[in-house]
Amino acid sequence: MTLADLAHPRQDYSYGFLDAFARRELRRRILKAIAIPGYQVPYASRELPIARGWGTGGLQATLSVVGPQDVVKVIDQGADDSVNAANLRRFIARMTGVETTTDTTKATIIQSRHRIPEERMDKGQLLVLQVPDPEPLRHVQPDSSQAREMHADADYAQMWLSLYEQLVRFGRFMQGASYPVIVNGRYLMSPSPIPRWDTPALHQSAHLTILSAGREKRLYAVPPYTDVRPIEFSDVFFQVEDQAGRVCTLTGAGQKYMDELPQPSGESRFRISDTGYVEKLLKMAQGESTKIGPTYYDDAGQFWMPGVIK
Amino acid sequence: MAYVAARGGEQAIAAAEELHTTLNGPLSAVLVQSIERHLPYLVDRVMGEGSLYAPDLAALALAQTGGDLYEAVLLLRAYRSTQPRITYALPVRQSELRTVRRISAAFKDIPGGQILGPSLDYSHRLLRLDVLDDALSIEDRKEEPPALSIERCSMLNAPLPAVADWQRENGLLAPLPDRDPCDPSALPDVTREPISFPAPRAHRLQSLARADTGGVLALGYASMRGYGMSHPTVNELRLGYAEVTLRHPVTGVAFSAGRVRVSQAEIVDTGAGAPGDAPLRLGFTATIGWNEVKTIAGAMLDLEMSAPNPHPAHQEEFVLYHTEPVESSGFCIHYKLPHYVTFGSALDNLRKAAKTGETL
Amino acid sequence: MTVPVMNPADTRQHATFTALMWALSYPGRATRLPVAGPDALTLIGETLVDLETSFFTPDAMLTARLSHTGGRSLPADSASYQFYPRLSRSDLDLLASAPVGTHVAPDLGATIVIGCALGWDTRLRLRGPGIAGTREILIAGLPDAFWSLRAATARAPLGWDIFLVTDNAVLGLPRTTAVEVLSWPM
Fold this sequence. Notes:
The structure holds three protein chains of three kinds.
Chain A: H1 3-6, H2 20-35, E1 41-42, H3 56-65, E2 71-76, H4 83-96, E3 99-100, E4 109-113, E5 126-130, H5 144-152, H6 157-170, E6 181-183, E7 187-189, E8 208-213, E9 218-222, E10 228-230, E11 258-262, E12 268-272, H7 275-285
Parallel strand pairs in A: 2-3, 2-4, 4-5, 5-8
Antiparallel strand pairs in A: 1-9, 6-7, 6-10, 8-9, 11-12
Chain B: H1 2-5, H2 9-24, H3 29-38, H4 40-50, H5 55-64, H6 69-80, E1 98-103, H7 129-133, H8 163-169, H9 201-210, H10 213-227, E2 232-247, E3 254-269, E4 281-288, H11 292-306, H12 316-322, H13 325-334, H14 340-356
Antiparallel strand pairs in B: 1-2, 2-3, 3-4
Chain C: H1 8-25, E1 31-32, H2 39-48, E2 54-56, H3 60-66, E3 72-73, E4 81-84, H4 91-96, E5 111-115, E6 117-127, E7 134-140, H5 145-153, E8 161-166, E9 169-173, E10 178-183
Parallel strand pairs in C: 2-3, 2-4, 4-5, 5-8
Antiparallel strand pairs in C: 1-9, 6-7, 6-10, 8-9
Helix pairs in contact in C: 1-2
């Protein structure tokens, strides 16, 4: 027997880029995040060959979970083909050789920045959301150690106060994306900068969601079948972005989250932001066979689970 | 808009990278060696902020990025992520550094003497325009003078006591706390666990060692200009070589794995502390590579962060979060990414609020 | 550059980790491990423990195997990862001292891996995150007092996260799962 027989073949990088220690650390943190829904687990957060703030948190989560059997979808603003999504997907494939897809229903892992797909995710699927700022209390308490104490005490009074102030000043809640939610009746959580349209998709979902902020070194999760409630008053409710009257210029469909495309004429045209979904609608229109999964919102704009959006 | 909505993001990326290469010229081993040989302070800065002592890799990172400092630091840090931790070196002691430059502004002379060493501090900052007129091409030149060999510096081997030790003996500084010999593997490590506040001392010093030179300077300068609480004097500034000593895993014998360039600064605060305390307080920063601006400004920030009720810009959390080069530069450039989903979500609210006319 | 491949240890640990992740995501649902029998606990140890964390086990054989991970062997009142191939009544005193985390850092609560059997004996009804409605399971080989001990210590967000290992399957019980003992064995 020679030494070469005992050694593994030399490779420039480990599978999934991260070395075994980094991967093991992330895995330990992910398990704790699942066990404490909505609690921000601190982690070391290694530097990756992608700039900080460009999805390194999501990428570390994906790289520590992904295996040869997985099928990965990466989206940015709902789009599979944006340069950033393409770049992250290219990196994951380069470091793991994993199969990639644009089809939500075929993916086992979906890494996303700022959107949840329109088609409902299912049991055994993993959604990894990239998070720029994990701290929902940041604008009421910029000091992170103080904010941590507030989470420990479930002291969210200042958050309710700021919600009330918005109501007094503007007659409505002014939080756009990243609308804060209460997870499992305990932790206030930022769902990452997904539009309010996507927030209800986290409530009692069949899939697992991991949210990871690489720069801020915090990782948290929403397990399947867990209560995720946007903060609202008993007489003034959380509202999603109004998509009524908007028609997708590519597919003619409505009641999905739309990108607004300003026109030289001063008007706007609209396009469905979920490009994987658009791709399937177009295929179907051309008579090609494709399987479209059930969506979170129906054609009348009704959310699939009754009572979630009041 | 097109940069996101366009189909074929991957082709766009490839084309953008190719254009970058075309504009910046090809990479070569000669270029990398030349950067390592001729731009050591730049290489040192990248190694310090990149938190990895590897002059050849830092030079490669600089060559590969066309000298974009933040990109070069990121390249080195990303490479660092793939390297396992094999062992822990023994602690490096200040007095054992092979020192090439060591000055104190606090005293005219100090035990062991002031050593000006390699420095441009007292040079005239005049561009050497004659160099451009030099008709000789590089090939015509004779052998370059050999790189500074550390054995040539006569002072190197003399152990130089720390100024702070003298001050401690004279009751000017608080004595060092009694500690058991330190087990390096038990030290809190900012690359293995995220920093929490108040930060363990090790985390603070590690963060300063990796910090962005410009960021540390900006906050340190604010302190110097009067926003700070302290009255700083450079107690001791040292540039030198540190011996990296390891223990053989089987025999336990200590051996040297080589030397690394290091710099460190100690700043004393002469502002009166509480009655009964030692008269002086000490701030410290050290980093790999020779970087005087960062260590001096960092040591001042170390003092500020320990002061009671510092200015908000000198609070520990503020300083350490905002001087992280990879995180701050990465987040800054991430604003180039499309944000139209969040922007659209905000517009939805703004339009409705405007329509109802309830905006104050 | 060629695409990196998993080495055998990577493959084993990846399969084990994904089993643990899904077991914890869907509490009470048995998930397959890549190996069976006593090796399963060693494998879970190898997947989670290294020189950056600590472990405890009352089993001498397992201590020897787990120390290969580089993890620090600590007593039950402070180890982050604890392994009980068989949970006897006397082990319960050790287990009772295991860390449950703090309100500022509930993630410091210990992870407990316990060997047991599935499919007969005590009937349990589970409720909580990861379970649509309720789920009923049958568990054997655990002292009765274990469930009252867990109920007394698991006060989410504090508590232990438990993996029950039976032959080649693992079943997760995060601290958020409410366990109701329906029937004791006859």
